[in-house]
Amino acid sequence: MAAGKAEELETTGFKIYYQILVTMCIVALIPLGGLWYISIYKSRLDWTTTILQNLESSTAAVTRSIDDWTSMNLRLLEQNAVTPSMLSMESSQQNPVLQSMSDVYEWVYLAFTILPDGENLGRSDGKPVKYYGDRDYFKQVLAGKTVGQQVLLGKTSGKPAFILAKPIAAKGDKNLGVIAIAMTLEDLSKTITKTRIGETGFAILLDEKMRLIAHGKGAVASELQDFSSHPALRQRNRFDKDSFVFEEKGRKIVAYTQKTKQGWTLIVQQDYKEAYTAADKARKNAIVLLLVTFLTVGVIALLLARRLSVPILNLTTVADEISRGKLDATIKETSRGDEIGALARAIERMGISLQMAFDRLRKK
Fold it and tell me: What's the pLDDT tens digit per position in 268-290?
């Protein structure tokens, strides 16, 4: 019978022990949850914003360089298009000016003029005149555009070349013809090649038809490759946090695109793993910290639960012994200064009172 009682008391003690332990763990999970949100979830969101901002700033910087380069060449055309030599529409007067343009600007390998019927008039290279009436840049100017442009494959270099064209006309007069410059894109290619983000990040420049002009990872092939299927060109919600994450050939990349003033598309991309290396490292450290914190809290909860439950179990045992007539049971918890100590002292006084009452009954 006594063994059964002891087992019952022990079971009751463990129930209290687990209740205290679970309660303390649940209370500890609240700050741990806040720590997880701040150190893992929120930090990753912040890092995602930082990655996107870096891509945007890199893309904007390269775009400005491309636009500045184009603007400089347009000013070159505008300044020379209104000179008396150009307005004369005489090749003998135009050729020296065209040659000086080609000599001063090393990336301009040909400066030339075209008559309204498409026939070539002046040339900087001294070669025989050609027919340019079928070229897009010429048609654009004749159609009324202030600037004509076209990216094509240079027959001599075998590399992409850029043609800029402007009308030749005095103020208020009709177009007398077209002045154009053919340029190599080596300077732009160098700008694209030098654009690096980490070890895997680079830039890609496409023309208005989504054909490759310059690639940050090497030389451009001897043809204008179609890059319209590049994953970064797919439109996504700008406010979606994953709007710059794409799949390319089975691997994840982060990329950002921006249009230049001439309608070209600049893509800046980086390997996803490299972009998130610091974030992943911070997340691992945060997880380790959380685990250590959780284990520490668990150990403290175990110790506190035991400190609270064991005295209660002891007092329950003493109370059971008193109820069985063992009034001289030893109570160890009377020295505690908390509520458990107060309870122990109350049980001790109760035992003394019962002992005194039994003594009086015996005397009677």
Answer: 999 999 988 887 887 787 778 77
Distance CA 59, CA 50 (A): 14
* pTM of the complete model: 0.70
Model pLDDT for residues 288-341, shown as the tens digit of each residue:
877 887 788 778 878 877 777 778 778 888 888 877 777 777 787 777 777 878
Q: Which domains does the chain have, with CATH numbers?
A: 2-42+279-363 (1.10.8.500), 51-68+188-275 (3.30.450.20), 82-184 (3.30.450.20)
Beta carbons of 282 and 43 less than 8 angstroms apart: yes
Buried b (16+ CB within 10 A) or exposed e, 77-114: beebbeeebbbebeeeebbebbbebbeeeebbbbbbbb
Shortest CA distance to 260 belongs to which of 217, 219, 205, 209? Answer: 205
The β-bridge partners of 201 are: 197
